[in-house]
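[Discussion] Sanity-checking designs against the backbone

I'm trying to build intuition for which residues belong where. Below is a structure token string of 448 positions. I'd appreciate it if someone posts a full sequence so I can compare it with mine line by line.
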């Protein structure tokens, strides 16, 4: 994998070649990744894997049309051929009045902010194996755990570089360290599985492997002997590890590209109050050591923190340059890039801010409800907001978490769900999209 300076140089060199080949404008991206992972199962080594990859991509604009092409060969001859082919492809492509580089006046000027994303420490395969074994051992030590799907540990590093023909050039590296455990409780047809994991930028920020393993084991045992729930409208409480998916649906609907295509259930709702006033959701790409932090976006624009929902009110769309042109607006620094193709919209470190009640207080007045710990399937219509997903979890009876339940469905419409949402105070930030426990009243539950 190249150094940040070398990656920038390769991108700049590719842009220069494209201009010489006849491109009016263009940008080039470099993506490099290296990772190592170790997995164990039942105390024995199961797999050691190392992977390395690097790609360079070129997007050119010729006479209002564009084309993208990528390569894993970064040599001078390969770059010459890449530039020539990209320009030839663009000359055959139809014009697109919305395509183009981000406005030059909006580009990041000066040095990119240092977000402390790159951990210089490296972990050996032997150390990764030790961590994976500790996590699995702790999970298997929980009474009731009968089998294991394994423990895993990994470490990796990625590099992103971008250069444009109108003056931007930048690069940054980011590391990652992960631990996981997944185990089975019970016997025969009564078996249940569950898991726990953590991923951080720096190795020293990870939870102890024994804590991760113990959590996986306890979760699996709690799910044993699930019952069924009767159908009807009732409060649904979402565990934080599934509640973040609700915010994910919101983010998809807030994409400027979806709005421009008129394919979003939030169409014509910009600025409307969709949530209770207690709900605020922020998107902050400048969090130090954040799992989705980035000093600039995929088009060279500076990134900044913003409230995407402020006291219940939607504050606007997430836009790359193309979507902004379609909507007559300004790009918001949310463009992301792969090694080929046009930019697309992505969020960064998204947090739904905590409320004032503990989870116990949040459910205290629920006489009959469900607490969801797992969601199954993809039954969400991004155009209408209709929501229906399989689920498992626990009953809530007279304000208390009761027995495990499975094979039921929770359904509603996301607009109605947003309006009925209440947040607890147990926020923990580590997923990229993070929420506390969420309560949504009036959902439809289909069971027996």
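Best answer:
Here's mine. Compare freely.
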């Amino acid at each position: 994998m190249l150094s940040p300076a070398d990656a920038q140089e390769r991108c700049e060199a590719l842009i220069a070649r494209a201009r010489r080949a006849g491109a009016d404008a263009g940008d080039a991206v470099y993506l490099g990744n290296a990772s190592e992972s170790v997995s164990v199962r039942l105390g024995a080594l199961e797999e050691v894997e190392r992977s390395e990859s690097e790609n360079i991509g070129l997007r050119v604009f010729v006479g209002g049309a564009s084309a993208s092409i990528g390569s894993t060969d970064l040599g001078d001859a390969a770059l010459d051929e890449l530039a020539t082919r990209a320009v030839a492809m663009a000359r055959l492509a139809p014009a697109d009045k919305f395509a183009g580089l981000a406005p030059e006046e909006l580009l990041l000027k000066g040095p990119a902010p240092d977000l402390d994303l790159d951990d210089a420490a490296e972990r050996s395969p032997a150390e990764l194996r030790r961590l994976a074994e500790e996590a699995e051992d702790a999970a298997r030590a929980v009474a009731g755990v009968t089998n294991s799907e394994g423990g895993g540990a990994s470490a990796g590093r990625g590099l992103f570089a971008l250069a444009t023909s109108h003056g931007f050039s930048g690069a940054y590296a980011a590391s990652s360290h992960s631990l996981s455990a997944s185990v089975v409780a019970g016997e025969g047809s009564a078996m249940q599985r569950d898991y726990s994991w953590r991923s951080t930028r720096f190795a020293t920020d990870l939870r102890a492997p024994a804590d991760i393993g113990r959590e996986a084991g306890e979760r699996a045992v709690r799910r044993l002997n699930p019952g069924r729930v009767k159908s009807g409208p009732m409060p649904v409480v979402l565990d934080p590890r599934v509640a973040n998916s609700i915010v994910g649906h919101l983010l998809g609907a807030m994409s400027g590209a979806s709005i421009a295509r008129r394919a979003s259930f939030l169409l014509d709702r910009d600025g409307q109050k969709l949530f209770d006033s207690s709900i605020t959701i922020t998107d902050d790409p400048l969090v130090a050591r954040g799992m989705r932090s980035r000093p600039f976006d995929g088009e060279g624009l500076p990134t900044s923190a913003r409230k995407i929902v402020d006291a219940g009110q939607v504050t606007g769309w997430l836009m790359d340059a193309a979507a902004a042109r379609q909507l007559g607006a300004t790009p918001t620094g949310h463009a992301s890039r792969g090694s080929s193709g046009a930019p697309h919209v992505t969020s960064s470190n998204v947090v739904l801010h905590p409320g004032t009640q503990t989870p116990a207080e949040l459910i205290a007045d629920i006489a009959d409800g469900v607490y969801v710990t797992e969601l199954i399937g993809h039954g969400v219509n991004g155009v209408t907001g209709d929501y229906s997903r399989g689920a498992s979890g626990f009953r809530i009876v007279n304000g208390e978490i009761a027995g495990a339940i499975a094979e039921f469905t929770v359904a509603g419409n996301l607009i109605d769900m947003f309006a009925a949402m209440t947040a607890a105070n147990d926020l923990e930030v580590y997923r990229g999209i993070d929420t506390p426990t969420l309560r949504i009243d009036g959902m439809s539950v289909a069971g027996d």
